[in-house]
């Protein structure tokens, strides 16, 4: 089964559900990773302990990629020690976030290569 809003009711009772109204959520995190398996496991990590911290960091930095990227990739629990220091990684994330902020989610995803 693919994890989605529509499949949440089909999950076994022992699996926790999001403790917030998913329909009220606005874009607040960019997923850079390996597919549905990663997203399913990332949900447990991000929905609970880091969500308030990430929201506060993003609000303080504002919607400008040059300010937001260093703050977010500085979260060790997500990016570790080495990745934030890699200028190629920082540049790639900043470019992707600039595009996302300028175009919005739908136009950004529509312009990505298939695969």
TrEMBL record:
Tell me the superkingdom of the source: Bacteria
What SUPFAM superfamilies does this protein map onto? NAD(P)-binding Rossmann-fold domains (SSF51735)
Question: Could you tell me which InterPro entries the record lists for this protein?
Answer: Mannitol_DH/Oxidoreductase (IPR050988), NAD(P)-bd_dom_sf (IPR036291)
Q: What name goes with this protein?
A: Mannitol dehydrogenase N-terminal domain-containing protein
């Amino acid at each position: 089964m693919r994890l989605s809003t529509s499949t949440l009711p089909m999950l076994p009772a022992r699996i926790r559900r999001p403790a917030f109204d998913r329909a009220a959520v606005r874009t607040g995190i960019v997923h850079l990773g390996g597919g549905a398996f990663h997203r399913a496991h990332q949900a447990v990590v991000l929905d609970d302990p880091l969500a308030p911290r990430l929201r506060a960091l993003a609000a303080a930095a504002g919607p400008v990629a040059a300010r937001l990227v260093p703050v977010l990739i500085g979260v060790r629990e997500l990016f570790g020690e080495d990745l934030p220091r890699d200028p190629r990684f920082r540049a790639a994330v900043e470019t992707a976030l600039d595009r996302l902020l300028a175009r919005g989610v739908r136009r950004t995803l529509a312009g990505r290569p298939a695969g």
